[in-house]
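ok so I'm stuck.
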Amino acid sequence: MLTLDKIYHAAFVLKDVARKTDLIDATNLGANAQIFLKTENLQLTGSFKLRGAYYKISQLSPEQKAAGILACSAGNHAQGVALAAAEMGIRSVICMPDGAPISKVEATKRLGAEVVLVHGTYDDAYAHALQLQAETGATLIHPFDDELVIAGQGTIGLEVLEQLADADAVVVPVGGGGLLAGVAYAVKNLNPKIKVYGVQAALAPSMYESVKCGSSVTLETVPTFADGIAVKTPGEHTLDLVQKYVDDIVTVCEDEIATAILTLMEKQKLVSEGAGAVSVAAVMFDKLPLKGKKVVCLLSGGNIDVNILSRVITRGLVTSGRNATLQIALEDKPGQLLGVSRIISACGANVTSVHHAGSDPNMAITSCFLTVAMETRDFAQIAEIKAALAREGFQIVPIRQG
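replied:
not stuck anymore, here's the structure
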């Protein structure tokens, strides 16, 4: 059974291993709550996963250590296991989905683990790890459904209470549930008045649906870019703990996650992966009753794939009204482009690209479509530009997809 004693013991074991991450007062996020960020994205290996992995491995018997260890992971648990195993001189084999970010795969290899790429999702990697366990006798270090792993993650709850004793709420990302279960158990047993909320990606809501149904739900697909919480089935132990100690679970969409990542970079100078930013997204988009409260948002990881970072930033800019594209139907005659650009300039926006098309079969031969991409301040400025164009007789038309 999970106990506070185990969490305190985990904190003792981890005191010289895991970084006690800072709790930052995030005054620039513009939400209706006073937000504090627990920066596990700055943890060693870039994620909280080191805590649970190291504590679990530290408690293995000499015989288990000699037989080696196995793990399955989308990337963050893999790095935590690899680092812990290397420090203790234990052979480690990590099964990872073949869609895991290359940066996470390579980081795991650099830490000394043998990586086996498995076609499919995290759950497929888990099935392969179970097969290898049966064949080799190695110990499987589960990423979330293990009481010692949960105890290791629960040390974050102890730190939060030490750093902000008068917190009103703690908001935690959730995939399989190890982090949420550990933090909730620690917080609720030490101060039951503090609310604990979980946040899941809307495209991977396995824990959300399981709590709502009262029993474990397995999803067919989890197509979120927040790969760290893309789990089809929550853990049995974690689901039980979440049902007992968590006040509510909400979901956030991909655009909201992207906006949170962008905001954290721009306003707080912090890099977060999708899974790490869902807690901030939930607060920014008012998914929880937190107005005027002191709220700790846990940034669970910062290992975002740089190859998708630019796309995430672009999505965040569009979602927050910082980037807009308009298509305008024009008469194909001199001065039209000048008229449009004058209006946009007068409204204070910046044109980043212009495309002139005169061959669309849906338009009159004497007409053309002008597509203008702009950097804008917010949605109010976009509306101002549209109104000014309409007053001058320009017709804005929907941009056809495909």
